[in-house]
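Continuing the series of single-chain predictions for the mutant panel. This is the parent chain; the variants come on the following pages.
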Amino acid sequence: MAILKQTTLGDPERDHYQLSESAVDMTRPASPARVMRLPAQPQDIAVDLNKSALIVIDMQNDFCSKGGWFDSLGAPLDGVRKLYDPINGIVQALRAQQVPVIWLNWGVRGDKANLSPVTRYAFNRVGCGIGLGDPMKQRPAQAASTPNGVLQQNAWGAAVVGELRVEEGDIQVSKHRISGFWDTPLDSILRNLGVKSLFFAGINADHCVLSTLMDANFIGYDTILVEDCTATSSPEFCLQATLHNVRFCFGFTVKSTDVIREATT
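Parent structure:
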């Protein structure tokens, strides 16, 4: 009897079909759980690395780099820069364990056609400043070959900062709201990856990070905030309130050092 050729459709380690000339196998055999146990607040947790992903939010030039939008507004950048080493550390550790790394950044349309007035207002309250998608005259030399709109898709300001290591195989998703789940493919990507547990890092803790984490929680994901991999330009009490709310209502908080230790031993 001739052996029928088989083809895998999808990720062989996650969600896939097994095709042959005569049938489609939809059983999706489950991989044995790869359990990582972590000290956390309010309780310690155990996650399956096969069903986990790391989402790094808004670590992009317009928020983090000299010549970016935040810098032009006089926002301090020191707190953001302290995140580079811990984020690189957890990214490297989880990537080595085949945990998907997702870079979630602002990337608005150049014509701003899907940005309502109420969305734009929060970023340009006086109506004569520089808000979402608006052009900036002063940009670094490396930005010259890209669009110059604030947080504009495919522009220098929307790119992940050079201090963080984005590698082939990582996933990049653009958003145009504070939550990364609203009107983006993020949920579809995570479901195709078979992900249930999400680690969150990035800025601002009390805005885009918390909003994305809350939306993830509302639709059934396990939500874990990595404390030392997130910061905010807001007053310190906003960060403390974020940590409290995550622990009390929306999930768990962990330290990157614990994740790195458990992922590399």
